[in-house]
Design goal:
The chain is built from 18 helices and 8 strands. Helix content is 57%, strand content 10%. Strands 6-7-5-8 form a 4-stranded antiparallel β-sheet. A hairpin with a 2-residue loop joins strand 2 and strand 3. The protein is of the alpha+beta class. Among the domains are: 69 residues; 76 residues, Serine Threonine Protein Phosphatase 5, Tetratricopeptide repeat, CATH 1.25.40.10; 73 residues, Alpha-Beta Plaits (2-Layer Sandwich).
């Protein structure tokens, strides 16, 4: 008889382990079968790896650096930042192939803890990999640093590689908005407005649409075009009423209304800023103006509520655009073109934004007397 460690018994509750010293006497005739059972159980528990093939025994071990880089990337994407830094620190310089060195350099820049180190890492990446995989992302990050630091000309110069009409990625769309803001910060409001308008096809309907709408409105305000700013702000607030830029957009709308001479409407919008976003910086600016939140209904405010006049409806967009231009030349404000849901769509040309029907009708009558336009009062 030969002493053999007892195989752990598998039951409904899992594996039941016996004491290390317990043995069971087996006949020699059953020894081979018992040993096979041990192997099968151990393999089932994942404790026994298959024997390597001959080719695997002789193959050299894979270089550890690419594996370390892959592990660092996984840790970074999983949010384990310290682990990613530690793994990257174990990769010696010059030990990665060029395509992997590109990735490692970009990851090191993203993981930099100090602002100065971060900037140096970004600059170093562009110097080492001028055509690198992450060239656009690094350029955008470096331009944002220049913009935040007040060096608007440098930011705009960096972002010259991004052009309207061709950007299809989130990086490209963010770069277009930042480039327009850098141009605005440099003091070229008309140029910024023209650039942002040219980028509309790239940005409308995208995740960057809200930031784009606010940048466009700011450029229009500084270019002394409050009507264009109102149009951009209204569209932005209709699509993103609780967005990140909502307090700033409402305050900018109040400023645009002041520039248009509509002080009562401007005060109502400023009051709404304090009502809807009482903890925002813009609410503090409203209170500094001596305006306090009131109990008035926001439905009467000129941002989606109230009344307008409709002057025409067309099945061709070019005809609607032509009438809109005529209305603006006639001094009408808040001119917009609403695209209907019909098939084919109807393009409705509207103007004005008023809390009451009588005020909207007054604009319609003026346009009828001065230009011969017919109109109807419609809800906004």
């Amino acid at each position: 008889m030969v002493a053999l460690p007892v195989v752990p018994r598998l039951d409904g509750a899992g594996v039941t382990r016996l004491d290390a010293g317990e043995t069971r006497r087996l006949p020699r005739a059953r020894l081979r079968g018992a040993a096979a059972a041990v192997v099968l159980v151990v393999a089932a528990l994942g404790l026994l790896a298959p024997a390597p093939r001959r080719s695997e025994r002789t193959a050299p071990a894979a270089a550890p650096e690419p594996a370390l880089l892959a592990a660092a990337q996984q840790a970074f994407h999983a949010g384990r930042i310290e682990a990613a830094r530690e793994l990257l620190a174990r990769i010696p310089e010059g030990k990665l192939p060029p395509e992997k060195a590109d990735v490692a350099a970009y990851l090191r820049a993203l993981l930099a803890e100090d602002g100065g180190v971060y900037e140096q890492a970004l600059t170093g990446y562009l110097s080492r990999f001028p055509q690198g995989t992450f060239r656009r992302e690094v350029t955008l990050a470096l331009a944002k640093l220049r913009y935040v630091g007040g060096d608007y000309a440098a930011a705009e110069n960096l972002l010259a590689i991004f052009s309207p009409g061709v950007e299809r990625s989130a990086t490209g769309r963010q770069a277009l908005v930042t480039r327009g803001l850098a141009q605005l910060g440099r003091g070229d409001a008309p140029g910024s407005l023209q650039f942002l308008l040219s980028a509309a096809p790239d940005l409308k309907g995208s995740r960057e649409e809200e930031a784009y709408g606010y940048a466009l409105a700011e450029a229009a305000l500084r270019a002394n075009k409050p009507a264009a700013a109102m149009e951009a702000l209204r569209s932005m607030l209709e699509h993103h009423p609780q967005g990140d830029y909502a307090p700033q957009a409402l305050y900018a709308m109040g400023t645009a209304l002041e520039m248009l001479g509509r002080q009562t409407d401007a005060t109502a919008v400023f009051r709404q800023v304090a009502q809807r976003f009482p903890l925002s910086y813009e609410a503090t600016r409203v209170r500094d103006r001596g305006i306090r939140p009131g109990s008035g209904s926001s439905a009467l405010l000129p941002i989606g509520g109230g009344f307008a006049i409709q002057i025409g409806a067309f099945t061709r967009r070019d005809l609607a655009d032509g009438l809109a231009r005529e209305l603006r030349q006639a001094g009408a404000v808040d001119v917009s073109i609403r695209t209907g849901t019909e098939s084919p769509p109807i393009f409705r040309v509207r103007a004005g934004s008023f809390p009451t029907r009588d005020q909207a009708r007054a604009l319609g009558e003026r346009l009828r007397r001065e230009r011969g336009f017919s109109y109807q009062v419609v809800p906004r």
